[in-house]
Design brief:
alpha/beta; Rossmann fold; eight-stranded mixed β-sheet; globular
């Protein structure tokens, strides 16, 4: 993302996991782990939306941790339809953020995996913020968000998303009474609207 980005490898359930870590210039509020879109459709830790979320997090004072799911980049293993990818995310959380404030974010497929990580971690440790962008509700079984985390969760979706229709996300959110912030005219990858996406994420992470 920038010259200060730290690149490293850590052990994971399917072998080494590739990481990129960006830190704020001063003290950190904690760590935010950001999950990338679908591994079989070009999703990596360098995805523009993922990098935008990382920039917002660093500006808000968080240490941003991006990682490649199994089979992507230098990460070992093969695509596992979300099951193994959840294990990857949890391994990153355990290794990189064993204690202290933790937030979770994900884009598209990564948002789907993040919802399952939230449900898994919620009973084990506090989660400060949840940020879900372009949540792949039409393609995967997205987990519900625990009601007590609703005030600390931001769901962002593009009005004109033709990869994951807004209606699918509303159908997922409606039974939970979970608000969805809709970006007018926004597509799945927020082309031309990444500055707005960054501003929305920044506001949520500093609220």
């Amino acid at each position: 993302m920038n010259a200060q980005t730290e690149h490293l490898m850590q052990a994971g359930p399917a072998g080494p996991i590739e990481l990129a870590i960006d830190r704020p210039s001063g003290s950190t509020l904690g760590h935010i782990v950001i999950a990338h879109p679908h591994p079989l459709f070009g999703g990596t830790l360098n995805n523009k939306v993922v990098q935008t979320l990382a920039r917002a997090a660093v500006q808000a004072g968080w240490t941003a941790i991006r990682f490649n799911f199994r089979g992507v980049g230098a990460s070992a293993g093969q695509y596992d339809e979300g099951r193994g990818e959840l294990e990857d995310l949890l391994a990153v959380v355990d290794a990189q953020t064993p204690e202290g404030p933790l937030s979770l974010a994900g884009f598209s497929f990564g948002a789907f995996v993040t919802t399952h990580a939230v449900m898994h971690l919620h009973s084990r440790r506090p989660i400060d913020r949840v940020l879900l962008v372009g949540t792949a509700a039409s393609r995967f079984q997205v987990e519900t968000v625990p009601p007590e985390l609703h005030p600390r969760t931001l769901v962002i979706h593009g009005e004109s998303d033709d990869t994951v229709p807004l209606a699918a996300v509303m159908d997922w959110a409606r039974p939970q009474s979970l608000p969805v912030l809709v970006v007018p005219g926004g597509g799945h990858f927020f082309h031309g609207q990444l500055p707005l996406l960054k501003d929305l994420a920044l506001r949520h992470l500093t609220a």
